[in-house]
Amino acid sequence: MHENASSAIDTKASVAKPGGLAASAAAALKAGASQQQPSEGQHVDLLVIGAGLSGVAAGYYLQTRCPRKSYAILEARDAIGGTWDLFRYPAVRSDSDMFTLGYSFRPWSSDVALADGASILNYVRDTAAHFGIDRGIKFGHRVVRASWNSADGLWTVEAEVGPEKTIARYTCNFLYMCSGYYDYAQGYMPGWPGMERFRGRIVHPQHWPSDLDYGGRKVVIIGSGATAVTLLPAMAQTAAHVTMLQRSPTYIITLPARDRVARWLHHKLPSTLAHRLSRWKNVAFTMYFYNLSRFRPEFVKQMILRAAQRMLGPDFDVAKHLTPSYKPWDQRLCFVPDADLFKAIRSGKASIATDEIETLTETGIKLRSGDLLEADIIVTATGLNVKMLGGLQVEVDGVPTDLSKTMIYRGMMLSDVPNLAYALGYTNASWTLKCELTSLYVCRLINHMTARGYAWCAPRRRDSSIKEEPAVNLTSGYIQRAIARLPKQGSKRPWRLYQNYALDMAILKFGALNDGAMEFGKSKSSKRVA
Ligand SMILES: Cc1cc2nc3c(=O)[nH]c(=O)nc-3n(C[C@H](O)[C@H](O)[C@H](O)COP(=O)(O)OP(=O)(O)OC[C@H]3O[C@@H](n4cnc5c(N)ncnc54)[C@H](O)[C@@H]3O)c2cc1C
Questions:
Q1: Does the structure show a pLDDT above 70 at 29?
Q2: In angstroms, what is the span from residue 23 Cα to ligand 1's centroid?
Q3: Residue 183's beta-bridge partner residues?
Q4: Is the pLDDT score of 16 beyond 70?
């Protein structure tokens, strides 16, 4: 049970602000609410931004690990679910297994490992409702600005509300950004010559039109990432033909859609235990496969290519269409369930073209090779625009923070930015694994500060031997387009990102909080504690 507004991180900051939660908290507790929506101008101990998979996890951990803290969630959209509510293209699904993409605290009891978007959305919403997390979400609040004031030990957060973009202000002691990693307004859309001439329809998967009828139509999907390989077999079921047009190939691996071991475990064991074992089995397999790919890239590459050749038959040009120029895991791999992509290609209803676009024409796409791809519909599966912290403008004591000048601390905080954490997942394993660890760490931090009377904590770069490195070690286009704007990681702990669940678990669950890099402080009048 989550008690409300009883204590902020330091007692000074917790003094009820005008319109504070103190009175309403008592009422909420009486009513049995575990948390509640703040109204404009109110104060909460923790403000979570975003009600997607990570925001719901944050709610769960705050309620269970920091039960005496008040918290609320501000969400820009009118719905819970983030990614899984936004993306509505045909057959949208996870490409990592649900035993690790699902929460550790809410069993995924189906044996479907790569689940469809609607089931994931239901699962996230159902989790939010089950734990009463949904009651504390303020929808339609796009957070645009957050200003930290050291004297008060407080964030003032500004959100745009409604079509008029009226500004609503809230204060909090700790700000937890669960806002994902990309721009919701706009997917990435490169321009091509001749776009205005094309007489068919151009569609971006991030904004799939519900009225799009592709039955019997010729479709070209531009791209070769997870979205393109999902769309191809789904659209090929009714389209006249679907071509995946790619400039360069991606590693594509088939996985069983259903996890037989998980099914057996669920059949034999209580749900929670079965979920836990399935989760650990998949964590171990993912880590093993990732490490094998990094240490024996040629072996893994040949294994992937041989499997593709076997499924597509000897005449398919695997060297041209399915052999990337980079090593496995230099970019994310694509996983397809039950070889659906390969089956669609073998059926003749779909194909891959590896080429470059010269221009769009009235009736399709002219390629550099001189070939022409006829199309009624072009789907631009060209990716996302990376956006850190939901586009939030951050100020610390009146000075705007340039994110690219900050260094990432433990994959969740930024140097010299007090009392702010963010949830970002792994690039080589399911998102939820990391975002749950982040929430756990945030709760540990809050409880540590409360116990010692600290008002704030901020990671400090004190070790000059630590070198700056790019935040993400993937060569993928969407990362490279954003890398200059992103914070840096450091060459050593605690500034280095290991993308390793087992290691992170040891550090974030059990490691020391006072590690020499994190500075803790009391309110203005108190002495700072290093
Ligand atoms: C198509 C697709 C498939 C994916 N498949 C997988 C997969 O299989 N496995 C995997 O591990 N990962 C996958 N990912 C990554 C995926 O984003 C994560 O799995 C996860 O859903 C992210 O959850 P999140 O809550 O952190 O972010 P999001 O789902 O992006 O949710 C963020 C929420 O914050 C809100 N928000 C953002 N900015 C603001 C703001 N300024 N103010 C208020 N609210 C704001 C948004 O409206 C949204 O509701 C996929 C991503 C995409 C796009």
A1: no
A2: 34
A3: none
A4: no
**CB of residue 391 inside a 6 A radius of ligand 1:** yes
Predicted confidence at residue 528, as pLDDT, reads 34
Residues 6+ apart with CB under 8 A from 265: 273, 274, 277, 278
Q: Which residues of 252-273 are buried (b: 16+ CB within 10 A; e: fewer)?
A: bbbbebebebbbebbeeeeeee
Question: Which pLDDT belongs to residue 231?
Answer: 97
> How far is CA 484 from each of CA 473, 487, 497, rounded to the nearest angstrom?
13, 8, 17
Residue in this structure with the two tokens 């039955």, named with its chain if needed: 215
The DSSP code sequence of 207-247 is G--TT---TT-EEEEE--SHHHHHHHHHHHTTSSEEEEEES
Candidates 69, 146, 57, 39; CA nearest to 102 is: 57
The neighbouring-strand residues paired with 158 are 145, 169
Residue closest by Cα to atom 12 of ligand 1: 431
Going from the Cα of 425 to the center of ligand 1, the distance in angstroms, rounded, reads 10
Regarding the beta carbon of 430 and ligand 1, being less than 6 Å apart is answered: yes
> β-pairing, 377-380 with 350-354?
unpaired
Give the angle subtended at the CA of 211 by the CAs of 191 and 179, to the nearest 5°. 60
Pocket test for ligand 1, best of 61, 74, 83 (most atoms within 8 A of CB): 83
Rounded-to-integer distance, Cα 87 and Cα 77, Å: 13
Asked whether the beta carbons of 114 and 98 are under 8 A apart, the reply is yes
286 lines ligand 1 (CB under 6 A): no
Residue 508 has φ and ψ, to the nearest 5°, of -80, -30
Closest by Cα among 65, 72, 19, 18 to 45:
72
List, for residues 43-92, the tens digit of each pLDDT value.
999 999 999 999 999 999 999 999 999 999 999 999 999 999 999 999 99
Q: Report how far residue 34's alpha carbon sits from residue 498's, in angstroms, rounded to the nearest whole number.
A: 35
Q: DSSP for 425-469, please give it.
A: --SSS-HHHHHHHHHHHHHHHHHHHHHHT--EEEE----TTPPEE
16 C-alpha to ligand 1 centroid (Å): 33
Helix or strand run (H / E) with residue 101: helix 98-101
State whether the beta carbon of 180 lies less than 6 angstroms from ligand 1. yes
Crossing angle of helices 53-65 and 431-452, in 10° steps, is: 30
Q: What is the pLDDT of residues 326-385, one digit of tens each?
A: 999 888 899 999 999 999 999 999 999 999 999 999 999 999 999 999 999 999 999 999
Q: How far apart are CA 421 and CA 415, in angstroms?
A: 11
Residue 277 CA, distance from chain mean position: 24
What is the model's pLDDT at position 35? 60
Instruction: Please state whether the peptide bond connecting residue 418 to the residue before it is cis, i.e. omega within 30 degrees of 0.
Output: no
